[in-house]
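pls design
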């Protein structure tokens, strides 16, 4: 985790108040091991050091899937079960769905009043995604506002840090700019510091991106593991399927016969050993491969065992929720209640600042 911007939180964390992080994931369905070894392990670490808010960005899913929202709810459930399977703990992190916390939407609306269109138009993901998903009409209001909704997701909790991947950094930058503009517009104290500069109250906290190191998790073909490459192992994939997929993996093309020596550096199985195998097993692979002492199926066996063993833990943690999906729903309801309690405080201050009176 590498902070990309200097720390300048409005409300510095004190020893008795841990830093707050917020992060969301669009519901794309069941997750794969790349998600686990990248984002989720990072979340697990944060759970014990930070006050965490983790949510399903289901409104964000609608910005691109408005033409067919039928899968969003099933995908959300699958994804949350994967979070829990990986060890996200609702007793330590607030876990919820964005659409259950309407305060995000109200803050998004209010932020839209102060956000210049040009700021949104120049966010790189805007044009990139429009080009990438060219079959879809993304010239919508909702899609342009995607990063501003994300800003609201973050600012509503006053989070100091946001764990995200590299591609999301421009969204965090936008969030900082919007917070700064809001503070300048509404946080003037009328006082100046010793340099004669106006003292501005930080009504909204400017967050920092906490960069999740790019997942090095290799896929079945040696490229990065990604749904779009079709080279994934699911987080809770069945042992049979894992066995099958790894056995079918291509190996060093120079090893046509078992008696041909190979080079692990030229084999997509090797990077998986680097994630899953002990140094003894790796030494055994190096030796056995380069001297043609082991066959490729033999080489893959301990790898299959290690992946299946890791997944056994995931499957065991997921089972109670698969048996009782209503338990997931009620966990999300409780999460949304906790999230709303915090979100309502921020929103109340924002409303007051803007001179909006609450109906009583
Ligand atoms: N845009 C993020 C992504 O695609 C998901 C997201 C939505 C998010 N709201 C957020 C991430 C708030 C961090 C904080 O990955
Ligand atoms: Fe790849 Fe292992 Fe076969 Fe060598 S022995 S080519 S590392 S699968």
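designed seq:
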């Amino acid at each position: 985790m590498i902070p990309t911007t200097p720390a300048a939180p409005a409300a510095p964390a004190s020893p008795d108040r841990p830093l707050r992080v917020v992060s969301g994931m669009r519901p794309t369905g069941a997750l794969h091991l790349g998600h686990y070894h990248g984002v989720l392990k990072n979340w697990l670490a944060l759970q014990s050091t930070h006050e965490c808010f983790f949510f399903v960005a289901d409104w964000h899913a609608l910005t691109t899937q408005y033409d067919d929202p039928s899968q969003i709810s099933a995908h959300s459930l699958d994804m949350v079960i994967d979070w829990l399977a990986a060890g996200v703990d609702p007793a330590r992190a607030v876990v919820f769905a964005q659409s259950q916390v309407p305060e995000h939407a109200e803050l998004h609306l209010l932020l839209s009043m102060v956000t210049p269109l040009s700021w949104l138009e120049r966010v790189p993901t805007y044009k990139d995604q429009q080009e990438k998903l060219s079959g879809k009409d993304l010239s919508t209001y909702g899609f342009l506002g995607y990063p501003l909704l994300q800003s609201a997701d973050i600012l509503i909790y006053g989070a100091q840090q946001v764990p995200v991947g590299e591609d999301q950094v421009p969204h965090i930058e936008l969030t900082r700019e919007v917070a700064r503009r809001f503070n300048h517009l509404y946080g003037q104290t009328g006082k100046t510091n010793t340099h004669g500069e106006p003292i501005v109250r930080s009504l909204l906290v400017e967050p920092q991106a906490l960069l999740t190191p790019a997942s090095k998790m290799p896929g079945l073909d040696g490229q990065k593991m990604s749904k779009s490459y079709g080279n994934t192992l699911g987080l809770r994939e069945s042992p049979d399927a894992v066995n099958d997929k790894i056995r079918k993996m291509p190996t060093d093309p120079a090893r046509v016969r078992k008696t041909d020596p190979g080079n692990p550096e030229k084999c997509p199985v090797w990077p998986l050993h680097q994630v899953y195998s002990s140094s003894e097993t790796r030494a055994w692979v190096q030796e056995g491969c380069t001297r043609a002492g082991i066959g490729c199926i033999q080489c893959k066996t301990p790898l299959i065992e290690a992946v299946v063993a890791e997944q056994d833990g995931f499957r065991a943690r997921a089972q109670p929720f698969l048996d009782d999906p209503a338990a997931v729903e009620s966990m999300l309801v409780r999460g949304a209640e906790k999230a709303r309690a915090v979100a309502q405080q921020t929103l109340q201050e924002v409303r007051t600042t803007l001179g909006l009176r609450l109906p009583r």
